[in-house]
Structures are given as C-alpha cells and as structure tokens.
C-alpha cells in the first residue's frame, strides 16, 4: 500500500513537472502586452526600479513602464490606446525564460516604436544567437511597427532578451516595446508541381490579430534564420512586409509579401536546377488594398532572365498573374523579386506591390530572353 501511494505521488510530481516545462505555444508570451505592471512601490515615477517588478519579465538598465497618453516634454508617446508598454532607455534589457523544443525553429514577433533617439536599434537574442534590428524607418502612420526575428532552439530552455544598446544624453530616451509573441516555424517542404518551398507564403511569423499593418521580416544580415521559411531577404538594413488576408487583399490563401523597400531589398530563394533545362516561373502581382496607389511594378529575376511586371493600383486590392521563362545555367538558380521603385501612401508611409502564389516548374519549351543578372 505504501509503495502504491509513493508511486501515485511520484506520478503526480512528474506530471506537474512535465506541465511546468512544456514548450511555449504559438501566440502571446506570458504578459506579452505588459498589462500586468509593477507595484507603485517598485517604481520611481515611470522608471521600474526592481528587476522582477514586471510579472513574467526580468529587467536591467533604465526601463520605464509607460501608459497610454504618457507625455515626454511636449511629445505624447505613441502607446496604443488602453494599453501599456515598456520603454528601454540606455543599456536597458527585458528578458523572459522560455521552454522550447530543441532544434525547432521559432519566430519572435514584437511591436516597437521610436521615441526621441534618431538612430534607435534593438538587439534581439535567444541564447546563444542574436541580431541587431534598426528601427529608424517607420512603416506605419501610427508610429508602431511589428518586427519579426527567427532562431533555432539550441537548448530546451532559453532566454529571450530585447536590449537597447544605445547611450543617449537623456538616459530615458529609447524605443517603446509592446506585444511580444512567438510561433514555431515548420521546415518548408516541396509540394506537387512547385520546385519552390513555401511559394504561397502560408508559413511565416506570427501576426497580431488586432494590428492591421503586418509584420516586417528582416534581412539575412540581421537574422541568420529567416522568419519566412524557404525565403531570405537580401539587403543591408531594409525589410519586406508579411501581410495577412484579415487586413489586406491577398491574391491567394491567407498570406502574402509586400515589397516595401524598393530596390533596397530583395525576396530571394535558391532552388536546384539542371543546367540547360528550361523552366517557368509563375507568380501573382497586386496591391494590398492599403491605399498604395500608382504605377506599381515588380521585377523578377531567374538565371539570366528578367521580367518587369507593371501593375496599375487604385489601392483597393486586385492582382494579375505573370510568367518568366528561362533556361538554367547553374545547378542552383536564384529566384529574386524586387519592387521596381519606392512607393508611398498619402500619409507618407512606405508601401509597395504584393507578391504571392509563386511557383517554379520545368518547362517543355522556354525562350529565355537575354538579360542582365542581379548581382547581390
């Protein structure tokens, strides 16, 4: 009887332990909106004084807890209505311990807004990987952008840290952070009749349901593992935007990519090909129904072939199909998409054409035009 009781007790303990270390699920991190704030006794004005004052988070450096309508001098800080945020001042860090599945790829999505510094950037890290994301360029009229960053879990328990490496004369000057979420990424598989992986962009970073501006995907220079499986962003500092059908016009499925940085960023995937064999690259070009009006255009490259696809946008949605025929000249062919130019909405925020539903198949016949190769 005693042995049976001990066995039941051990089973219960192990069950509790298993639940305690279960991997994080897709969605908001615990207190990811910072709605659970510090006690007033743990604050000096807006500054948080205790390392563990914000539930589920640890902090260091000059961290402030900011509410909607908060002012700095004559400037109202751009905190979403009825929400809270943290501001990372000089050398400030917020971090949270996560239980994850080893060797799995994850994407972090978080909201950030500039305040008073001119060259604000954020160091995002998940032990032992890190990347520095510039946030100087603002892509929304609200001042808030959602950023994504991916990592491969090396351990079952990791620390997610977001750090402001800046040092301003005003120690409180730094970016605002709100809404931090996570999503497991699945290795992209080839599908029937498409040599490209994730050509429909259905796998990508987490998009907050209540944010209508999509998620920025950083270049490979800043993130070794792309939050957009199968694809990389080639650029020094610029991004592409991952958008959803809930808030945008998407040509097919639930997600697409908006090319918001002109020729400063390219959406790229390398695929195995047979030299001398003809292929056909097909894709959709359109607008996201987000007010991006004008003569939009997408330029596609594959092997030595180039195709510029114009699209006359009224900013209300719509798309058309395009096709690029080419002959492979190497074992690996780089498929590249760029916006032909920079475009702006009436509120002066950057925008661009949509790319979606991309497929690559062998062709029986192909006439590949002679064209310059994109060098990256």
Automatic annotation (TrEMBL):
Its main location: other. Pfam families: DUF642. Keywords: Glycoprotein, Secreted, Signal. Residues 1-23 form the signal peptide. Coiled coil: none annotated. This is DUF642 domain-containing protein. GO terms for cellular component: extracellular region. The keyword Secreted applies. Residues 27-183, 195-360 form the DUF642 domain. The keyword Lipid metabolism does not apply. InterPro entries: DGR2-like_dom (IPR006946), Pectin_Meth_Modulator (IPR052437). It comes from the Eukaryota. Gene3D superfamilies: Galactose-binding domain-like. It is found in: Cell envelope; Secreted.
């Amino acid at each position: 009887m005693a042995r049976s009781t001990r066995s039941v007790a051990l089973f219960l303990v192990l069950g509790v332990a298993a639940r305690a270390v279960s991997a994080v699920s897709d969605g908001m991190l615990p207190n990811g909106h910072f709605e659970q704030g510090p006690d007033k006794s743990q604050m000096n004005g807006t500054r948080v004084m205790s390392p563990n004052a914000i539930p589920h988070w640890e902090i260091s450096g000059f961290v402030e807890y900011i509410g909607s309508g908060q002012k700095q001098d004559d400037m109202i800080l751009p905190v979403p209505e009825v929400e809270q945020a943290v501001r990372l001042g000089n050398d400030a860090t917020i971090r949270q311990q996560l239980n994850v599945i080893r060797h799995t790829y994850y994407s972090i999505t978080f909201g950030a807004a500039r305040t008073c510094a001119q060259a604000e950037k954020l160091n995002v890290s998940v032990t032992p990987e890190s990347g520095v994301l510039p946030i100087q360029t603002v892509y929304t009229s609200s001042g808030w952008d959602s950023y994504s960053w991916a990592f491969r879990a090396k351990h079952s328990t990791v620390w997610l840290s977001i750090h402001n490496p800046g040092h301003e004369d005003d120690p409180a000057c730094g970016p605002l952070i709100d809404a931090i979420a996570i999503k497991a990424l699945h290795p992209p598989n080839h599908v029937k009749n498409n040599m490209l992986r994730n050509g429909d962009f259905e796998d990508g970073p987490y998009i907050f349901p209540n944010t209508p501006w999509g998620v920025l995907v950083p270049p490979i220079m800043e993130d070794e593992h792309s939050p957009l499986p199968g694809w990389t962003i080639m650029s020094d500092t610029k991004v592409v935007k991952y958008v959803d059908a809930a808030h945008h016009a998407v040509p097919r499925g639930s997600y697409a990519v908006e090319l918001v940085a002109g020729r400063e960023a390219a959406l790229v995937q390398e695929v195995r090909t047979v030299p001398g064999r003809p292929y056909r690259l097909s894709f959709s070009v359109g607008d996201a129904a987000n007010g991006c009006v004008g003569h939009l255009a997408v330029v596609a490259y594959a092997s030595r072939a180039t195709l510029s696809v114009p699209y006359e946008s009224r900013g209300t949605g719509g798309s058309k199909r395009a096709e690029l025929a080419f002959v492979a000249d190497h074992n690996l062919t780089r498929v590249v998409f760029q916006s032909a130019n920079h475009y702006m909405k009436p509120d002066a925020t950057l925008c661009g054409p949509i790319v979606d539903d991309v497929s690559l198949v062998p062709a029986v016949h192909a006439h590949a035009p002679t064209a310059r190769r994109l060098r990256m």
